[in-house]
Amino acid sequence: MKEDLDMWTQLHDGGYRYGAMTTNVSKCFNGVLKGSRGLPSAAMVVFTWSKLVAYFHDRHKEITHDLSEGKVWSIYALNIYDANLKKSKTHQVRAFNNVRGIYQVETAYKNYSSRGGHHSHEINIVARTCGCGKWQNRKIPCSHAITALQYLGQDATTYIDPCYSLENAMCTCSHQFVMPKSESLWRDVDGPKWVPDPDLLRGKG
């Protein structure tokens, strides 16, 4: 493999993909635009445009409602955080270097787990890193980081990356679409007329 590891592996991406397993953004829209497959080109464009308008409109409406209720973080981020918070209840923390913000967190024994539990992780509060790698990867405090932050009396949710905030999500979904004119108002095209190649048409069946 000639490509650098940071170009195609999640382990070496520096956390820039926030846990996403693919760099191909178009794959994220496959499910949304699945219904456009097999449609004529013009119908495909209309279908895609309509789906995007609905997609942005619905999410803008949901985020506006959540912000009005005083919510700060996306449901996706909070689900991950809540799961990590639940796991942190059994962890133990030890101050290791207060000046550098380094703490040691040990997990409990797990007789029912194949890995057995009782692992030690180094937490660096200043650098926002954990030995498990999950904090750097998703930019959401892992269970070990939450344990250390709670030990310091800090609100661990403030360490969630701003990309998961509803305010930033609102900026993404605030794009204004322009309503297209009726076909009868379209101006004539001044240029060559494109005709489909009949030899490329698929047969029936």
Question: What is the strand and helix layout of this fold?
Answer:
Elements: H1 5-8, H2 41-68, H3 75-88, E1 92-97, E2 102-106, E3 120-124, E4 129-130, H4 134-138, H5 143-151, H6 166-173
Antiparallel strand pairs: 1-2, 2-3, 3-4
Helix pairs in contact: 2-6, 3-5
Q: What structural category do the secondary elements indicate?
A: alpha+beta
For the CA atoms, what is the radius of gyration? 25 Å
Head-to-tail CA distance between termini: 42 Å
Summarize the amount of helix as a percent range. 25-40%
Q: What does the average pLDDT come to?
A: 85
H/E series: HHHEEEEHHH
In DSSP terms (H or I, runs of 4 or more residues), the helix count works out at 6
Strand elements, count: 4
Quaternary arrangement of the chains shown? single chain
Low-confidence stretches: none
What is the molecular shape? elongated
State which percent range the strand residues make up. Answer: 5-15%
Strand count, sense and barrel status of the largest sheet are: 4 strands, antiparallel
Q: Going across the major beta sheet, what is the strand order?
A: 1-2-3-4
